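Incident log, structure service

09:12 report received: a user says their structure output differs between two submissions of the same chain.
09:20 pulled the input from the user's history:
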Amino acid sequence: MAEPLTTPSVGRTPSGRRFLLARLHSLAGVVPLGIFLLEHLYSNAIALLGPKAYDSHVRALQSIPFLPFFEIVLIGIPLLYHAVFGIYMAILSRNNALSYSYSRNWKFVLQRVSGLITLVFVAYHLWVFRLSSTFFGTEVNYSAVQEHLQHPAIFVFYVLGVISTMFHFTNGLWTGLITWGITVGPKAQMISERISFCLFVLLTGVGIATLFAF
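09:34 re-ran on a clean worker, output below:
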């Protein structure tokens, strides 16, 4: 008697597991990390209102109960997973932008390049303005940020980091909509691409304006 044919369930085969991990990678970049990015951008943009407003907002954030726990669970773990799996996918991916100069192929490459730049930028930023405060009691306020950004090389690095981070986020939103089957047709993808570009310009403008505010 012939055995019945069975279809491997998603998650049991290597391809199925990679599919689930890729979906989790996409989700982590939007839900916890994307929301935190927007909140962090807003918090820093308060510097446009002056030192007193910025320092007051920072003190309010630091007074949140169980803040380290939320930072580890909602930011640290998703960030670590998103970074590690993103590097893994970048290693496995074949970049063909030099052979086929289509805009989407270049975006594919830039998404991975911007991801690596963003990872270095975020790691540096976390060390300077979060981990050093936790380990050594360094105070984070308007004056500290202003003094840090006085170095031309660091300021240029932050500008590059902001541009890279905003591109990685907004382009990731665009590809995420395709990946999750939300924008299926060419017209929907074209509209979402234009929206993501406008969002990139807006967020980058706010981020760079904030840097100049310091």
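09:41 both user submissions now match this output. Likely a transient worker issue. Closing.
09:42 reviewer note: The chain has eight helices and no strands. Helices lie at 14-30, 32-45, 51-62, 67-92, 103-136, 142-148, 152-179, 186-213.
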